[in-house]
Amino acid sequence: MIELNIHNESSELEIVILGLPDSFGDTPKLEKCYDPKSKEHVIAGTFPLQVDVTKEISEFLSVLRKYNVKVIRPENTDGLNQIFTRDISFVIENKFIIPNIIEERLDEIKAISSIISEIPKQNILRMPQQSRAEGGDVMPWNEFIFVGYSEEEDFNRYRVARTNKEGVQFLEKEFPNKKVRAFELKKSDENPRENALHLDCCFQPLGTRNAIMYKNGFKNNEDVDFLINLFGEENIILINQEEMYNMNSNIFSISENIVVSEKGFTRLNTELRKRGFIVEEIQYSEIAKMEGLLRCSTMPLKRK
Predict the structure, then answer these.
(1) Residue range 67-113, pLDDT digits in tens
(2) CATH architecture designation of domain 13-303
(3) C-alpha to C-alpha distances, 293 to 45, 234, 287, nearest whole angstrom
């Protein structure tokens, strides 16, 4: 049986599901793309190739193994993009939550059914039908659960709105001891520079008190103020629109002082090292073209 334990984003990682690039399918048809960045690269003829995404995830796997993390993989489904395991399920405390996600991604959940079968049934929570969420929007942070979401008007309007108010209410009900703090995100189905696909596309906590933030990913200034007050202005690394577009907030913590980052994030990586982090740099720029990066590719099951 798999023991689950997740209370935050940065305690020492012990077990993780890492996305699988084995046969993620050729360049999708434009109408099959459900985020604006993938659309952009399909139109430009620069959508990533199988050989490149395989190489990038292999590099990530090597770093995880270097730090003795137990890595579990989904079962391969031919022609299915299984790189972004973060969204199809997530763990809070000792509970494995299976959310309701967009129909195009349901087969990804089937591909981790053998992993789910190793989790005690009493620790598995299924969201009720009207509650929608994806794991990129959900961040346990000690006494808090941070959630990116869309109110009904945006949720019904945008394909890129993946978490609704009912999803937030589900978390409030199931984790009454946590402070669930929800943030409305800006959405765009057409412009990737105006779209915060998930919370981890514009914000992520690191270490014990640091965070990366793109202020303009949030719809409401009071949410930005709340996070700045909580973490302290001096502890937040602010990124600009272009850095957000390149997924700078979507790095991944192996522990409180070790992070995995894209080697092209020059300014961010320098800033992280100044703050005492060990930064493991890898190539991940092809995968970034699908509007996801390192956090998106991982689904932590157990941290110390």
Answers:
(1) 999 999 999 988 788 899 999 999 999 999 999 888 888 888 989 99
(2) 5-stranded Propeller (3.75)
(3) 20, 25, 6
